[in-house]
Amino acid sequence: MTASLLDAAQDLLEEGGIDSITVRSVATHAGVAPMGVYSRFGNKDGLLEALFVEGFDRLQAAIASASGPDALARLRSGCMAYRDFALANPHLYELMFRQMLELELSAESLERAEQTFGHLVSRVSDAMAAGLLARSDDVDVAQQVWNAIHGGVSLELAGVTFSSDPERTFGAMLDAMLVGLR
Amino acid sequence: MTASLLDAAQDLLEEGGIDSITVRSVATHAGVAPMGVYSRFGNKDGLLEALFVEGFDRLQAAIASASGPDALARLRSGCMAYRDFALANPHLYELMFRQMLELELSAESLERAEQTFGHLVSRVSDAMAAGLLARSDDVDVAQQVWNAIHGGVSLELAGVTFSSDPERTFGAMLDAMLVGLR
DNA sequence: GGCTCCTATATAACGCTGTTCTATAAGTAT
DNA sequence: ATACTTATAGAACAGCGTTATATAGGAGCC
Question: How many CB pairs under 8 A join A and B?
């Protein structure tokens, strides 16, 4: 039941964006009465929070699956996977970062999101250990990288791209960043 | 009348965020009946679009006012001014980029936003002309810079900063970016 | 000046939203 | 088999954006 509600919400999200997720639409799509959302998730925000967590888990898996010949290549590959995930799940990505602004999320949910960031920190740390990035605070550098890739993805999803080849521009930004951090 | 409605909307936006902007609340705050919003702006989206345009105009002014001893310093200073603007007007900044996703804006409104980007392109172009950045497509490079600073600002506004000193981290990201583009 | 027409504003209503309340059905333990 | 707890269904409430209707005000003309 709780899974079917989540599935229904994801379907509606993919199909019609955030606004098409309403308590009634999700419940109907899952073949349940609206009250089902409240008994399972407390309220609509609880349902959105579950989507938030699932989104970060999937994002983390996408980053983790990236590979490469050396630590810096794996970092770069993970960042490209980050972009691929966002472009493949635009509405989910939007929801994940909008909820961060609007909802006050539970400690557990925030930790799930931080775990994803932790993966990025590890990759940065590995690259530093391999001498491929200048040694400094790995969390700080990971934050800088995340800033850049999140911005690139956000503007691309918003349709604000003045580049003819967004993927190439994204890669070029990433390379400039990594060169500057070397 | 149309100015007082805009002022009322800005007041409510600053005070309570995007959700506190409702047709009724804005009209009441401006001492007008709800219908006034429709006669002046067509509908609520028209009002939000007016806020969007005004936001980009103010952002452009903030970037333009930045100065420095050379072209690269002026570019960097403009980026820092970009961050200052966003932190000083968090809800307005959120609205500006959310509307880009949700509303389909008029051609004129989009052009106003593009003018702001044009200022950034000019600063990049100047830095290239002065030999302080590697010569390449200025629009493409400006996009990369915008990606990075928008991401940094967005995550900071969302409260997703694992750095102890966000301003320093933002500056470090910017420097890494500019070094990589040299 | 008085009358007509047009425009703009106010009021009420419609359909939608999230949420809550009440009553009914189902399932379990004794 | 009965009693009690739990979950579900349905209606109802306040708020939202929007629309339709009715009323007031001002401009143009005789």
Answer: 124
